[in-house]
Amino acid sequence: MFQVTVDETFSSGHALRGYKGKCENPHGHNYKVQIVVEGPSLDSIGLLYDFTHLKRAIRDLVEQVDHKYLNDQAPFDTINPSAENLAKYFYDETLRRVSAMPAGARLTRVTIWETDTTSATYWA
User: Of the candidates 7, 10, 37, which has an alpha carbon nearest to the alpha carbon of residue 114?
Assistant: First the structure.
């Protein structure tokens, strides 16, 4: 089995609706997002999936949330901008944006770090 990953960072603010504690107040994070693709075989030139295609997909998504207040951005204007919801959002949106993957290759998970020591991961 082969695995490729792409990481990207962004900065955003948010407030957790319904949360009792510090995070109910507006605050920000320097996030890191990691996209993981896995598959059993490589293409004819030895690639599982081209990093360039993954980087393009993730950068397009990051542009939409970087230096923004997430509570004002869809879909986080209706769902809480928790790390868990961010991970699912990046998974779903990356899946929509990546070009056809070679046979057997698939997007397996997305991890979002809010800090160096806290993260949330989503996989289907």
Answer: 10
Q: How many residues does the chain have?
A: 124
Cβ-based neighbour number of residue 81 at 10 Å: 24
> What pLDDT score does 75 carry?
97
Report pLDDT for 100: 79
Q: What's the CA gap between 76 and 99, in Å, rounded?
A: 26
- Fold that domain 2-122 belongs to in CATH: Tetrahydropterin Synthase; Chain A (3.30.479)
pTM > 0.85: yes
Residue 90 near residue 64, CB atoms below 8 Å: no
What are 34's strand-pairing partners?
7, 111
CA 27 – CA 71 distance, rounded (Å): 11
Q: Would you kindly state where each structural domain of the chain is located, as residue ranges?
A: 2-122
Pairing of the two strands 68-69 and 2-14: parallel
> Consecutive sets of 10 residues in the chain, 124 residues long: mean pLDDT of each?
97 97 95 97 92 92 97 97 98 89 90 97 96
